[in-house]
Amino acid sequence: MSAASWVLSDDISGVALWAALGLAAVAVVMLLVELRGRERGGVAIFLTGIVAIVLLTLAVLRPVHVDAHSNAVGPRVVVLFDQSRRLLLPTGDDSTRRERGMKAAKAIEERFRDARLSLLGFSRGKLEPFSLGDVETSLPESPSGSDLSEALSRLAAEPGEHPKAVIVLSDGRLSSPTAGLDEPALTASLGSLGVPIHTVALAKEQPRDASIRRVRAAGAAVAHQALSLSIDVGCGGGLSCKEIPVRARELRDGVAAAELSHGVVQMQDGEGSVELEITLDRAGSRVVEVSIEPPEGDTIPANDVRLLTFEVARDRVRLLHLAGRPTYDVRALRTWLKSNESVDVVAFFILRGLSDDPDAHESELALIRFPVDELFTEHLPSFDAIILQDIDAELYKLAQYLSRLNQYVKTGGGLIMVGGPSSFAGGKYAGTPLDEILPTEQPTGGKVFDPDEFVPSYTEAGLAAPMTRSLRELLGGKLPSLAGVNILGVPRPSSIVLWEHPKLTAGAKAMPVLALGEVGDGRSIALSVDSTHRLLFSQFAASVSGRGYGALWDGLLGWLMRDPRYEAARVELASECVAGKPTSLRVTRLPGMSGDIEITLSQHSEKPETPHVFSVKDPPSGPVEVAIGSLDVGGYTAKVRIGAAPPTRYDFGCELGGEAWSDSRPDADRLARIASLTKGKAVAWDDVDALPEPELTQITSERHTSPVLPPWGWTLGAALFLGAHWLSRRFGGLT
Amino acid sequence: LLTEIVQADDPKLFEEPFLIWTGEDAVVPLSAPELRGLRRYLLLGGILFVDDSKPDSGAFGASVRREIARVIPEAPVVRLEPSHVLYKSYYLIDRPVGRVIGQPFWEAIVRGRTAQVIFSSHDLLGALARQDDGAWALDVEGGYAHRQQAIRMAVNVAMYVLCSDYKDDQVHAEELMRRRGRRQQ
Q: How far apart are CA B107 and CA B103, in angstroms?
């Protein structure tokens, strides 16, 4: 196909064009005014003047002749495929919405054979080109929703040829535009592309499904403080839904899940909500399972359960300090705890031994009964951590509560055992349930306490541990001479030893003096000396004004309570964990931390299984993503070690349905409204032949330009007519 | 109980956070190193118990107060109220006594929440002193009952040094108030 046209020289700017036309118009007006004074020959004067003006103007504008040849090609059509994992929801015909979408895409390819199709997947962020021949790898499912508004904005912003039409393949349950928008808002959300948007509904029928549609928390989670969860439940597809029971549990590592709350949702028109109040007692990342008991006939059990990870903050640390006798070490620790604004301490010290005779009536004594029973039954869960300092388990009747203490630590509590003659094996703790949760083994016979002075030394882990950094910076790696030490056994497999004895040994290695342990959901510390007060008050301590003591205990208590300042790394999921899909953890090493990365991953279970270990040797600087494979549904604990430093713990949940499956209802009406507003057509997935094909696009393939006259031709003509005009004027009596 | 006599500028001062300064006569002014040593000791959290063995003359007590004022001039001496934890750190005690009955209160320099320098003008150590054969070394004004009370006071001081203000904790408050009320009836 060819076409001819005339255009002005392409080196004429708009300003020059208008200036030339303006001058020509002024000249014509002046010519008409002058004609009034002529005596004769008016026609000749006018004609020669007009022709001269036109020729002069054309000499400036220099028109060219354009001869163009063009071809008709198929229109560009963009197919936007919803990448959301929601499309994996089953339909009634044993396929998924995504499979239906693929069939529809193939039918579109057939139907729009003459068009230039661009196949793009959309979720959030950039559009992903995909090929129908290799859908599994080129169009991965996205857990991040389906944002059609953003996809259209990106199309509009693309340079080059805009499409003639857009075809959206989705179930309509889009993240954006959201449901319920009025017409102006919906139009605005579709952007400025200005082309018809055809929609293909991949599902219209609601499945027989009850699901947890949304869980909202009123504010941040703080340990020991009630948190209100608002749970929206949906039910439809012909299920009989009147009352749906809901419950919330905390999933924990190594122990049974803890029941937090339960309730019943009263359903009305397929929807209902319930408020559940839960209290999480432990800080850090905690996995809460919210589940419903669906009515019979529910076809999608995966969205009956949600696993939510809460980052539980701590307002104040509530701590129980028990001491078997008054000592300088007890005084130092108590004074430090009481001066710490973030610690709420409850203390009980044994001031009167069973054999002591105070020679006074009870009313003359300021002594109260040691409420061991109340503390270890009624009040135990209310404490974040417990410090046992030189207190004999049998003498003071703690022995019968050690199983409870064991469970307390395994379910997230913290424990520090401080040394002294009545601590560890000396306090009859060896072989008890408490022994199991300490970071080191206890000797079952022989010497239990060595009274000799010694100076402990840092281990490699001690020199790398963030919780000892302040102390090392203050004292340059030196430690004071300490008075005596409890005899400890070898460290347990997952324990980290920070200080060791210079002479005494446990097994083939130096005897631990300060060791850390991870037990189930909790942490424990063994400090086998009762003279760390020498970091506060001694000739050694005086050089740093006694600040070493606070630095040590800040670090120990901070690590016990999972204070991020004392962790070696920050750990998070690289993206939502979906059961059965590859998952990665993003590990960011904190300043000063270096070395290989080792992740020990265990699934929350009452009976722990062998954990999986993932290592990264010589990791590059910056955040590192570590692939941890495809996981089953459940809660997980990842313990991440950086070099020799103690591990950082991160708990998370892995869901099958997750957010994407929370609302299984398709929304074909929303798709129809989008099509209607953009003059597109809405069809069902099996009816794409009804989609209109856009007009062909003309593309210019060849273009020739040639000047009508050379510039000198216009100029010569103008000169001739100006001369003739001058003669006419003289003849007509004009000057 | 092991005791050792140390100079105020001796590094050994820092081996124990509890120091007793006792005497009969006025002390000579502390030297600059002694002032520095004692100041460091108190700033580090040590507790100094000043016991006047001859409260009748008061020369020792007055001279020590003068010297302590040079050590920590910013801290005034105040009277310890009957509610202070020193009166309930082990025994419930109404007033301090020693070899002499003396004034019915103790005075102290309180830094932070701690009574760091405690002034006794009762010769408390005199009431506790024994001869080699175990017999009491000195008679106590008021006899056996007051000696017992002095012993209890000494225990309270020791418990205060070892447990700080433990008995001020809320968990003890109600019970101790009840017992005090019963005793006063």
A: 10
